TrEMBL record:
Pfam families: YajC (PF02699). It is a single-pass membrane protein. InterPro entries: Preprotein_translocase_YajC. It is found in: Cell membrane. This is Sec translocon accessory complex subunit YajC. It comes from Paenibacillus auburnensis. Belongs to the YajC family. Its main location: membrane.
Length: 102
């Protein structure tokens, strides 16, 4: 009886075994992979749009104003006399200040 079921149900069981894996991949794609790709794309566009004079925060939490910028290096002015050099990728985000507040 076992041999008969294996011989007749062999073709349908392949789809039954592969189907859940395909479903898991689709769920992982829409819940994990796609949002991470969008986040990476917006971060890269923010890093490309940085310019001299922008106020930024580094990954370590340091606030500063960009005084010099190149393809991979950013020099931040922390106060009147202190300038620190960072890798461009270490910028967490740019700070936007409302026009009425300063």
């Amino acid at each position: 009886m076992f041999q008969f079921a294996a011989a007749n149900g062999g073709g349908g069981s392949i789809l039954g075994l592969v189907g859940p894996f395909v479903l898991m991949f689709v769920v992982f794609y829409f819940l994990l992979i796609r949002p991470q790709q969008k986040k990476t794309k917006t971060r890269n566009s923010m890093l490309k749009a940085l310019k001299k004079g922008d106020k930024v925060v580094t990954i370590g939490g340091l606030h500063g104003t960009i005084t010099e910028i190149s393809d991979d290096i950013v020099v931040l002015r922390v106060n009147d006399v202190t300038k620190l050099t960072f890798d461009r990728g270490s910028i967490s985000h740019a700070v936007t200040i409302a026009e009425g507040k300063e």
